[in-house]
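Single-chain item
Fold in token form
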Amino acid sequence: MGNDDITAENQMSKKEKNMIDTVLEKYDFEVIDYSKVRSAYKIKTSNGNVCLKKINHGRYKPHNGSFLVEALSDKGFCNTAKYYKTKTQNKYVRYKNMLFYATEWIDGEECDLNNIEEAIICTKLLAQYHKAASGIDTTELRIRNNLKNWPKIFKDNLRDLERFERIVKNRKIKTEFDSMYCGYLDNIYHRAMISLNFLNTSDYYKLSKQAEKNKTICHDSFYYQNIIKKNNEYYIIDLDSILIDLHVNDLGKLIRRLMFKGSYEWNFEKAKILIEAYNEVNKLEKNELEVMLSLIVFPHKFWKLGKKRYVKCKNWDEKKYIHKLNRLMRYNEMQNKFLEEYLNYLENYQ
């Protein structure tokens, strides 16, 4: 973690300090000091650093994470942060309408996924995690099952795009962003339909049925903030979002996010390197890659930007909205080329 992320304890309000002190009393830690790092608290104790995390809902999250970490460890995967129990052996502390839980603090730094060599290592780590998590008894877990849900998500997002267009057309006064966003909509909607068609003509439901039987557990937030490098070892943190889904949910989302980075820019060769790195540990079948393509090329970021503008009405100025839209659309032709090269890769995939 960088120093810029850290807020010194003396910059916390008295109310916040009292809250943390009250929560820490429930644990057996010999506390030396603490500081705030993003949305968590770094607790310095006589036995090393601890991460105290606050959540506003989901009392099963600490139980899920703790259970999964132990189950992964039993299967030889120890690259996660262990969970700590309170003095009374509870997995969380309730404070007013909030919940707190404590895990080991991995003293390292966030990985640099812009570096393809580091991204390869992290992709292999994801494959190792998936392999270890396969076959774990999920009856003890209270997690969302997202299997067979992708077509509904895609269709809902398509309907949202139609709604955004109606909202703009019904406006008497349109901003520059409104006109630009609507100007791109036909092209983007077409790509979304192509993506949905890929999904509908794939083995998605067959794969979902197999995953239902095996109860494959995804991280669902596998990105640089949740991958910590310590002494050349890499660790996965923050298991709050785990769910049951196809493994390509994690890998596809990772690749999609990276492709919008300046060091990737929808270069299929780099995506191929990551796919093959994953395959070295946990081989994907051709039909899994076909399903993953639908996830990667679906215009998720375009939909998300529209939702922020027309549903959540996020209070950004016009220049910021336009800047974000321009950044997305500069990759339009590159995405078309990426799609073509991915399909060629699939033809010869074994």
